[in-house]
């Protein structure tokens, strides 16, 4: 039996996958604690983990992070991404580490299993000298000597001109992220660590084991050493968990019995302005022979500020496991968890990735041949209509989506993270004995 600390940043797309991992450890008879924000306490306690909440680290509401971090107010696009990384992810690192070290002093763990943006978990593993597994819940963001900088949504170079472009972008990215690197050094000092040899974008990935969600077909070819990276498919619970099942909307029978194709449009769980993607999708498909199922990402199910066409149905959330088997095409803002869920069900995608990691998700879907990248988070109705028509009719895209579903079916992500972690614990114990 292992004693494991699972750490997740308090975002839906991070906490959900890590809760599935925590549940798999519990099911295997291991002792599990989970460190996360208050909003996700119930997600981890429901799978049997003992929950430790952010205290020294400043907790926040993912739907309004500027309420706790005023530095983020009014930012979108690249400015939002840089500010989020610096203030939410980096400058909370020492506080997270303090919380985790307090837990360690009460009961040491055998391994920290943390989402790759949980900087405090990396610090705590370094302070305690324990095994550390980083779980990449977003498109793999490890820097590369040959690829474009992660986050820009640019596919690998195909010729000399594009290789020169990528080299210039890598230099520019180092300049643009100097503030983040300064913050990283400051947090290492606050956490009682030396300056370190790695940059922040390298230091958030475990040197021993990176469990990346997805499948290799969605990852760009790398010339860098990748032996520590394993792909684990989708991190979703495959068996029922304690507590009631998520409620389905009252119009659910219309989805199940629909005589026309079902198109799912989702605004994701961050930057929830429905005018970005839901409104233009309604304008594009409101007169088409489809049933549009829109999810706003808002748990309060607030009414939309614009008319809903007769062929559309709206909810805050609908469980992917229930919905996606009925979906013909998914139109998404590019949240990686939703993208992977769609591909795991063989559903082709139209992706409007505007900011954060979403342009990267959109570019990888297009690069893998499983959908269309609209190259904006605020597409025009005509662009959505044209993309939906192409995805609906293109046999190559639909076939590629089914191929990727077959690759996902080969994985049981949470169980694989458990197995890889236990193997790493054994290697660390053997190394310490030697």
From TrEMBL:
Residues 307-423 form the Erythromycin biosynthesis protein CIII-like C-terminal domain. It comes from the Bacteria. InterPro entries: EryCIII-like_C, Glycosyltransferase_28, UDP_glucos_trans. It holds the Pfam family EryCIII-like_C. PANTHER family: STEROL 3-BETA-GLUCOSYLTRANSFERASE, STEROL 3-BETA-GLUCOSYLTRANSFERASE UGT80A2. This is Glycosyltransferase. It comes from Agromyces indicus.
């Amino acid at each position: 039996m292992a004693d494991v600390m699972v750490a997740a940043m308090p975002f839906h797309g991070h906490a959900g996958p890590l809760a599935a991992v925590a549940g798999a450890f519990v099911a295997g008879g291991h002792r599990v604690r989970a460190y996360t924000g208050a909003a996700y306490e119930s997600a981890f306690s429901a799978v049997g983990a003992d929950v430790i909440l952010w205290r020294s680290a400043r907790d926040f509401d993912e739907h309004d992070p500027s309420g706790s971090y005023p530095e983020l107010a009014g930012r979108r696009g690249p400015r939002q991404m840089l500010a989020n990384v610096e203030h939410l992810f980096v400058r909370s690192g020492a506080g997270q580490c303090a919380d985790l070290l307090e837990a360690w002093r009460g009961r040491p763990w055998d391994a920290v299993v943390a989402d790759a943006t949980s900087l405090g978990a990396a610090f705590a593993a370094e302070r305690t000298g324990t095994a550390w597994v980083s779980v990449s819940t977003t498109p793999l963001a490890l820097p590369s000597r040959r690829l474009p900088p992660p986050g820009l949504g640019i596919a690998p170079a195909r010729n000399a001109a594009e290789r020169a472009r990528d080299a210039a972008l890598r230099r520019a990215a180092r300049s643009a992220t100097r503030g983040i690197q300064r913050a990283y050094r400051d947090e290492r000092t606050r956490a009682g660590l030396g300056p370190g040899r790695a940059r922040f974008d390298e230091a958030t990935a475990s040197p021993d084991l990176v469990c990346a969600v997805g499948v290799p077909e969605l990852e760009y070819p790398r010339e860098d050493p990748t032996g520590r990276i394993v792909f684990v498919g989708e991190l979703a619970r495959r068996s029922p968990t304690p507590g009631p099942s998520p409620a389905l909307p009252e119009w659910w029978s219309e989805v199940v019995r629909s005589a026309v194709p079902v198109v799912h449009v989702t605004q994701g769980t961050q930057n929830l302005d429905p005018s970005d993607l839901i409104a233009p999708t309604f304008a594009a498909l409101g007169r088409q022979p489809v049933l549009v199922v829109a999810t706003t990402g808002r748990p309060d199910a607030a009414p939309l500020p614009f008319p809903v066409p007769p062929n559309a149905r709206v909810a805050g959330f609908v469980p992917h496991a229930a919905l996606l088997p009925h979906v013909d095409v998914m139109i998404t803002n590019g949240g990686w968890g939703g993208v992977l869920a769609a591909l795991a069900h063989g559903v082709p995608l139209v992706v409007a990735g505007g900011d954060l990691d979403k342009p990267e998700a959109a570019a990888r879907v297009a690069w893998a041949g499983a959908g269309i990248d609209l190259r904006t988070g605020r597409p025009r109705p005509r662009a959505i209509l044209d993309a939906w028509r192409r995805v609906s009719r293109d046999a190559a895209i639909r076939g590629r989506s089914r191929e990727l579903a077959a690759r996902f079916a080969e994985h049981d992500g949470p169980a694989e993270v458990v197995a890889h972690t236990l193997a790493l614990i054994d290697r660390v114990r053997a190394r310490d004995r030697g």
